[in-house]
Design a protein that fits this description.
46% helix; 9% strand; 283 residues; single chain; mainly alpha; globular; three-stranded antiparallel β-sheet; 2 domains
Length: 283
């Protein structure tokens, strides 16, 4: 990363002007806003309020709500000595199948699930509850907060809170071993702009990755050639995994088309109807 803001702006402006065809003709000012204050009033990115039935189409929101409601019924949940959810709670969440069967963390044999770490989508649900301030740990239990009481009846506020928490506070590198800490998460709103423009038809995640790294080339510097994969291909896989196969799929904003015969083949990505209902760009 570049610590000096003037250097950052100079390089950013050069990249945008040179790669205008892959940056959707976003001005340097637009990109700067999308990076520094993506949810601000003057940001090109705006979030819309969904219709009542649309909230049921959002996997991570449904998972968070289900776990919170379970906590309500049981006056909190007792945790393991390591601060994780107990297996019976994990299996309950797992069997609800909130996330797509083809999702990144789907496990077909539930007998292999022994703890929270075996099902990262369950772990993510707990983490988002805590990071968002909807729940807290106290004396070996996971308890709901007053914030949950104030927000539980308002799906719009709850979705926005979970969405922004995932983007701003959750570390997208947490569940993977890729070398870059920032790839995908940094400049996430630019990825949204790309999907907004090109997502009407299935498009390879590699193409999106190429556009993303052309705008933020320094994010590729953490990747190196290995004996089994090139730095370029590794960076593209990292971007696809974090941006599409986790973030956007978890929020129901894209449909990820995977090759069932070749799990290493780049996925194709297509935006859902929910994307256009929730995401809008005003340029």
């Amino acid at each position: 990363m570049y610590n000096n803001e003037n250097i950052f702006r100079k390089i950013l402006n050069e990249q945008i002007s040179e790669k205008r065809q892959v940056s959707l003709e976003l001005s340097p000012e637009n990109v700067d806003q999308l990076i520094r204050n993506p949810f601000g009033e003057t940001s090109p990115l705006q979030l819309r309020t969904l219709e009542a039935g649309d909230y049921q189409k959002i996997p991570i929101l449904n998972s968070v709500r289900y776990l919170a409601e379970m906590m309500e019924q049981q006056d909190g949940l007792k945790l393991t000595p390591k601060g994780s959810l107990q297996r019976k709670v994990i299996m309950d969440l797992y069997q609800r199948r909130f996330f797509p069967k083809t999702s990144d963390f789907e496990i077909t044999d539930y007998k292999t699930v022994l703890n929270e770490g075996d099902l990262p989508t369950v772990s993510l649900t707990r983490i988002l509850l805590e990071l968002s301030g909807l729940a807290r740990k106290c004396k070996g239990k996971l308890l709901l907060t007053r914030k949950w009481e104030k927000m539980k009846q308002d799906n719009d506020k709850l979705l926005r809170l979970i969405f922004e928490t995932y983007i701003k506070q959750f570390n997208w590198a947490y569940f993977d071993g890729y070398r870059s800490e920032q790839a995908g998460q940094f400049g996430f709103a630019v990825s949204l702009a790309l999907v907004d423009r090109f997502g009407d038809q299935p498009l390879s995640a590699e193409i999106y990755g190429g556009a993303y790294y052309s705008i933020f080339p320094w994010l590729q510097e953490d990747f190196v050639d290995l004996s089994f994969i090139t730095a370029k291909k590794d960076s593209r896989r990292c971007y696809s995994r974090r941006t599409f196969e986790r973030f956007l799929e978890y929020f129901g904003l894209v449909e990820v088309h995977r090759d069932k015969k070749d799990c290493l083949k780049p996925v194709d990505v297509e935006k859902t109807e929910l994307f256009d209902k929730f995401i809008v760009f005003k340029l």
